[in-house]
Design brief:
Layout (H helix, E strand, L loop, with lengths): L5 H8 L17 H4 E7 L3 E3 L6 H14 L2 E5 L5 H17 L2 H5 L12 E3 L14 E8 L16 H25 L7 H6 L5 E9 L11 E4 L5 E6 L5 E5 L2 E5 L6 E5 L1 H6 L9 E3 L7 E9 L5 E2 L17 E2 H9 L5
Parallel strand pairs: 1-10, 2-3
Antiparallel strand pairs: 3-11, 4-5, 5-6, 6-13, 7-12, 8-11, 8-13, 9-10, 9-12, 14-15
Length: about 325
Amino acid sequence: MEVARVQAISSITRCMDTIPSEYIRSENEQPVATTLHGVVLEVPVIDIGTCVDEEKIAKEIAEASKEWGIFQVINHGIPDEVIANLQKVGKEFFEEVPQEEKELIAKKPGAQSIEGYGTSLQKEVEGKKGWVDHLFHKIWPPSAINYRYWPKNPPFYREANEEYAKKLRDVGDKMFRSLSLGLGLEAHEMIEAAGSEDIVYMLKINYYPPCPRPDLALGVVAHTDMSYITLLVPNEVQGLQVFKDGHWYDVSYIPNAIIVHIGDQIEILSNGKYKSVYHRTTVNKDKTRMSWPVFLEPPPEHEVGPMPKLINEANPPKFKTKKYKDYVYCKLNKLPQ
């Protein structure tokens, strides 16, 4: 059965004032009705450059992770050119590679892995769909990579992604160090509990084509990330929204900063001290929005639960310890954890 890609639907509906009913969200989800307009949320911006004291960085990251669950890092050490190349080859895959070639790396229906080109990710509530196509594949560690899901075209796709992965690992390591220190632990303890060298870096490219009714649709429905943390670079088109103090807000971002989301697994490891961020994505009438989140995840068999040093009589465990693959299965199928 051929899957309807949102990119194709966008081309057909471009000159219309309507979209298929399965993309129209319920009223309590529609962005026009639920966004606090005229206010842009300034999430914390944290300088993680080599000149900044590690203790100061850890304190700021811990505060942002407890209060917001989202922040931006600058002076992160990834050259602008490396980010630009990542974005260039991703854009070319979606916009210049023939559709039949894209379908060669499509996710197979019923596949265990989420890797590959696709449109739908999880069980859709009331059959409603997000206005987005995507590509998932792992970029680290080498033992976890399946190049079958990496585009062959554009030709520099692999080189650009490998270079980005190499640089991004330093940022990931620094985040884990700071999050660990921020809880009064040794710098190495949290990354060791998370799986150290076995932590999987899963890239997702989100492609949100123009939508004739951005007031009625969402790119990605409201959710928290399943990962430990998510390291994200967007293109220049606004679209990320965060739920805070009972309202949805647009988030402003700084070019070439990296947006960091606290995910469910860090909330679990920290026994609820750090909060995973509840967020969603809106779409644009005239412009294509794209984003490149990298989810830092446990290997499927790795067990995640509250860290023993954070548990005592006054702070009993708030979460079960379970294998990551079981956590993912429950979350994608809307089952209780």
